[in-house]
């Protein structure tokens, strides 16, 4: 029986959104430098809270998953459908199959207030 490999892919419908990843400009230090455009991804709720306060806090947090071929730096902003999100550095992961090929990448993101 063959082992799963990089050829194992998630269904195309998994990545149902498109993002632009921005890094800091060396001149202005604002997040205006495009690092990746048209990145197929999925932004998912991170779960429900038990209290109104927990639900309000969780509303500003999501889980972002994207193709394993793309690396997003910890100090970036990701724009999806006009809303900017910032990754939490300690939350990056790349779930893999038996041969250590990453299936996708994921991280927690928080809403960037404009």
List the helices and strands and how they pair.
Layout: E1 17-24, E2 31-45, H1 52-59, E3 61-67, E4 77-80, E5 83-87, E6 104-111
Antiparallel strand pairs: 1-2, 1-4, 2-3, 3-6, 4-5, 5-6
Report the span from N to C terminus.
52 Å
What is the overall silhouette? globular
Sheet with most strands: strand arrangement: 1-2-3-6-5-4
- Please identify the top-level CATH class: Mainly Beta
| Domain module count | 1
Q: Helix/strand-derived class?
A: mainly beta
Helix content: under 10%
Q: Residue-averaged pLDDT, rounded?
A: 86
Kindly identify the CATH topology: Thrombin, subunit H
Given as residue ranges, the uncertain stretches (5+ residues, pLDDT < 50) are 1-8
The CATH architecture category equals Beta Barrel
Order of helices and strands: EEHEEEE
Q: Which homologous superfamily in CATH is the superfamily?
A: Protein of unknown function DUF3599
- Rg over alpha carbons: 16 Å
- Largest sheet, strands/sense/barrel: 6 strands, antiparallel, barrel
Number of strands: 6
Strand content: 35-45%
Describe this protein's structure.
The chain is mainly β. It has one domain: Thrombin, subunit H (Beta Barrel). Helix content is 7%, strand content 41%. It has 1 helix and 6 strands; from the N terminus they run ββαββββ. It has one helix at residues 52-59, and strands at residues 17-24, 31-45, 61-67, 77-80, 83-87, 104-111. A 6-stranded antiparallel beta barrel has the order 1-2-3-6-5-4. The longest helix has 8 residues, at 52-59. It starts with 16 loop residues before the first strand and ends with a strand. The model is unreliable at 1-8 (pLDDT under 50).
């Amino acid at each position: 029986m063959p082992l799963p490999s990089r050829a194992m892919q998630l269904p195309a419908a998994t990545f149902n959104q498109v993002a632009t990843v921005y890094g800091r400009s060396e001149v202005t230090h604002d997040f205006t430098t495009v690092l990746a455009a048209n990145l197929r991804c999925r932004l998912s709720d991170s779960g429900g809270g038990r209290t109104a306060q927990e639900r309000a806090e969780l509303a500003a947090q999501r889980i972002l998953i994207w193709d394993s071929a793309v690396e997003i730096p910890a100090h970036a902003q990701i724009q999806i459908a006009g809303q900017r999100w910032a990754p939490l550095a300690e939350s990056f992961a790349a779930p893999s199959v038996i041969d250590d090929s990453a299936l996708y990448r994921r991280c927690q993101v928080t809403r960037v207030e404009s």
